[in-house]
UniProtKB/TrEMBL annotation:
Protein name: Ubiquinone biosynthesis O-methyltransferase
Role noted for this protein: O-methyltransferase that catalyzes the 2 O-methylation steps in the ubiquinone biosynthetic pathway.
Keywords, alphabetical: Methyltransferase, S-adenosyl-L-methionine, Transferase, Ubiquinone biosynthesis
UniProt cross-references to PANTHER family, sorted A to Z: METHYLTRANSFERASE, UBIQUINONE BIOSYNTHESIS O-METHYLTRANSFERASE, MITOCHONDRIAL
UniProt pathway annotation: Cofactor biosynthesis; ubiquinone biosynthesis
Gene3D superfamilies: Vaccinia Virus protein VP39
Family: Belongs to the methyltransferase superfamily. UbiG/COQ3 family.
Record lineage: Bacteria, Pseudomonadati, Pseudomonadota, Alphaproteobacteria, Sphingomonadales
Enzyme nomenclature, EC number: 2.1.1.222, 2.1.1.64
Gene Ontology MF, one: 3-demethylubiquinol 3-O-methyltransferase activity
Superkingdom, taxonomy of origin: Bacteria
Name of the gene encoding the protein in the UniProt record: ubiG
Organism of origin: Sphingobium lignivorans
């Protein structure tokens, strides 16, 4: 993303914060442990949304074969790699060049061809994507409206967008900011609670860009399983989104 906050969506402080954690991304017990715990629930939701949107067979190993996918705020590739394994031609972008370097090295070691780029979504000018994912990212950008406008421009008319983010509630302030960051489960300074977006606010912002929510689930912490999908959106939520029909 552009480094000029007035012209792009990158917050340089956020990019530096996450870039400093680059070497730790793939360690399930390290600073990105929470993302690893979120992984199964988020990826399960993505797969269900893919099958529902394209009327696919849940037993198919490569439901994205022949499709182009974009992962925004990819970190070191925790979502980009599964999308590639599902058959997509994946482009993955991140604000921190350090993250992209780690992501490329890991994908090479896994034998996965992923087009990693250190840039912002608003800088992309190329054919549209069938699937766009952006998970726990929008709360870190400098201009959410510009961010969503760029996504809307890049999403095919019949494409699917998956977005997840923390809700702005007393529960998220307590569990994510006070407890998780206070106890070091998440690196301190990762979140600014005031930048969290409620589901209703998100729907309004999406509608302004010609996008509509077609499915939503909450992501809740469960001591037995890590994180699970729920109808309770109070902590974190994940959305399936499409273009509003013309």
């Amino acid at each position: 993303m552009a480094s000029d906050a007035q012209a792009g969506t990158i917050d340089p402080r956020e990019a530096a914060h996450f870039g400093a954690q680059a070497a730790d991304w793939w360690d399930p017990e390290g600073g990105s442990a929470m993302l690893h715990k979120l992984g199964p629930a988020r990826l399960g939701y993505i797969r269900e949304a893919i099958d529902r949107h394209w009327h696919g067979d849940s037993a198919t190993l490569r439901p994205l074969a022949g499709k182009r996918a974009l992962d925004i705020g990819c970190g070191a590739g925790l979502v980009a790699e599964p999308l590639a394994r599902m058959g997509a031609a994946v482009t993955a972008i991140d604000a921190a060049p350090e993250n992209i370097a780690v992501a490329r090295a890991h994908a090479d070691a896994m034998g996965l061809a992923i087009d990693y780029r250190a840039c912002g979504v608003e800088t992309l000018a190329e054919p549209r994507y069938d699937l766009i994912t952006t998970l726990e990212v929008i709360e870190h950008v400098s201009d959410p409206a510009l961010f969503l406008a760029a996504i809307a421009r890049l999403l095919k008319p019949d494409g699917l967008l998956i977005l997840s983010t923390p809700n702005r509630t007393p529960l998220s302030r307590l569990l994510i900011v006070s407890l998780a960051e206070g106890l070091g489960t998440i690196p301190r300074g990762t979140h600014d609670w005031s930048r969290f977006i409620t589901p209703d606010e998100m729907e309004t912002q999406l509608a302004a860009q010609g996008l509509q929510v077609v499915d939503r689930k909450g992501l809740l912490a469960d001591p037995r399983y890590g994180f699970v999908l729920s109808d309770n959106l109070a902590l974190n939520y994940i959305l399936a989104i499409t273009q509003i029909p013309a």
